[in-house]
Amino acid sequence: MKKILLMGGTGAMGMYLTPLLLDKNYEVWITSRSQRDSYHQNLKYLIGNAKNTNWLFSEVENEKFDAIFDFMMYSNQEFEKVYQKLLSLTTQYFYFSSYRAYAHEDGILTEDTALKVDVLDKYPEYRVDRYGINKGFQENILRKSELKNWTIIRPAMTYGKNRIQWFAGDNFDVVRAVRGVLTALPRSMWNIENNIAYGRDVALMLERLIGKKRAFAQAFHTTTETMSWGQMADVYNQVFDMKIDLVSDEEYIESIDYQDGRIVDRFRRKKFLNEKILSVTGLSNDDFHDLKSGLTEAFQASNIKNFQFNGNAAVYQAKFDALTGSLTDLAFIPETMRIQFESIRKNALFREKITMEQFRIRVINDYWSAKQFEEGVKLTRTSRPCDGPIMDNRWINFELDPTDYLKKGKIYTLSLKIDSDVATTFTPFVHHYGIGIQRFTPLQLKVGANQFDIEFVAATDNLTDFSLTATDFTIQTSFFIKEMQLKKQKRS
Question: Which of 148, 159, 276, 364 is the most exposed place for a label (fewest CB within 10 A)?
């Protein structure tokens, strides 16, 4: 009986590949970090982290696999240490790269299209996509290997049970659809082509590549339908009742994590030819699901509880509420996150442009008012008393430009020049959209001119805001910020 090892084989492709291999009478071994029970006599789970090479190689000692499907994500250093051993354990090693490894922006993509990692000198803007660059780098490691029993797979966007991709990422847009609120799409992308594939169809292609000599030392992208985003939106509307608000590129980028290489890549035209994999496998496009039937099948098999979000996803969901003007019912938001979610949403809804150096000043409650003058910004603590709930948002926020978000371990100096008509003690702080608060030493504000130079080490990554709280200031008092500047120190 032929033996297959799936490393990290419980994801969007592995979940469909496993039953297909069992139906073809393979013995299947799967590494998994969580406890799982075998449901088939030819299925064996290895419980542990496959990136722990000491554990992995002790588990498969004296084994020889007919194929290894490696779904793991490696750093370049990790892959350099492990790839030769993996090649030696199997007749055929499948390395999973990504369509994001491609550099080509327009026209038709084939497996011979240049990779980002090979054209960085010409296109330095690709450097934002570390994932795509690293995948290309690891592909090149395999190409330089003396052993040629490898096959590179470059999946396009792939959806399946519990994981429905669209423009913003895994489940992000579908979550909005099932909750009855609008999602957004950059208007410029409506007629731009891209590719999306069903994990079940990708599994069919993968199984057909096993043992094919024509697949050795070759790369394949596992693509099916090429459609415009507008055409895909129509299908998603039919399946999920997903409604789209078309927005400008600038508005979209302000509301999403544009430093995520995946989003950068979404803005590029991706039209794939899949003739190479069809030729080697003997499959045709008629063997695959159309988008509507695939999405319907995958969603019917999904557990709706998996369509949740937290962390950074919650930040951008709140921003999408503001972007689309379609507000998520807070009953869908975990109680522990509601105050943060609503605060972020109010921040994003605030459109008044009051700026100072790298900062945009946002008044999101009625504890504060702000007015911009040529020589600076006047802040007024309003007459509203601080007698609301203890978690009531009483802050005034000075949001950094995304290019200036603070990085953990770096040393910064925040310089403030303030003219005040009141003397008080106040405690400024920085945070990431209301979480990860890092408070500074309390400062003494005197009547008249004040100069503060606050040196600090950022405690976490991606701190977005410098803030003051109304609790520190007497009602109906004002002060004038004449200078506000953040500098990163050279030492760290």
Answer: 148
CA 304, distance to chain mean position in Å, is 21
What is the DSSP secondary structure assignment for residue 329, as one 8-state letter?
Answer: P
Instruction: Say whether both 297 and 345 belong to one domain.
Output: no
Q: Are residues 394 and 301 in the same domain?
A: no
Q: Which amino acid is at 322?
A: A
Same domain, 316 and 365: no
Residue-number span of the structural domain to which 189 is assigned: 3-305
**C-beta neighbour count of 362 within 10 angstroms:** 24
Using DSSP's 3-state secondary structure scheme, residue 23 falls into helix
Q: Strand, coil or helix: what is 447?
A: coil
The candidate with the shortest Cα–Cα distance to 400, out of 316, 318, 463, 322, is 463
Is pTM beyond 0.85 here? Answer: no
Q: Classify burial at 344, counting beta carbons within 10 Å of its beta carbon; exposed 0-12, middle 13-18, buried 19 or more.
A: buried
- Which CATH number fits the domain that encloses residue 421? 2.60.120.260
Residues 26 and 175 in one domain: yes
List the structure tokens of 164.
């429905």
Write out the two tokens for 35.
């406890």
Q: Tell me which amino acid residue 488 is.
A: K
DSSP 11: S
82 and 186 in a single domain? The answer is yes
CA dihedral 202, 278, 196, 289 (to 10 degrees): -70
**Pick from 400, 321, 399, 416: which is nearest to 362 by CA?**
399
- Give alpha helix (H) positions in 325-429: 338-349
Q: Are residues 212 and 159 in the same domain?
A: yes
Would you put residue 306 in left (φ > 0), alpha (ψ -120 to 50) or beta?
Answer: alpha
Alpha-carbon span 333 to 308, nearest angstrom:
9
Q: How many whole angstroms separate alpha carbon 196 and alpha carbon 223? A: 7
Q: Residue 98 maps to which CATH number? A: 3.40.50.720
- pLDDT, averaged in runs of 10, over the chain (492 residues): 90 91 96 89 93 92 94 95 96 96 80 93 87 96 97 95 91 91 94 93 98 98 92 96 92 81 82 94 97 96 78 82 87 82 75 78 82 91 77 78 84 95 93 84 96 93 88 92 89 56
How far is CA 382 from each of CA 103, 368, 369, 399, rounded to the nearest angstrom?
A: 53, 5, 7, 21
Domain identity same for 268 and 386: no
One-letter amino acid at 228 equals S
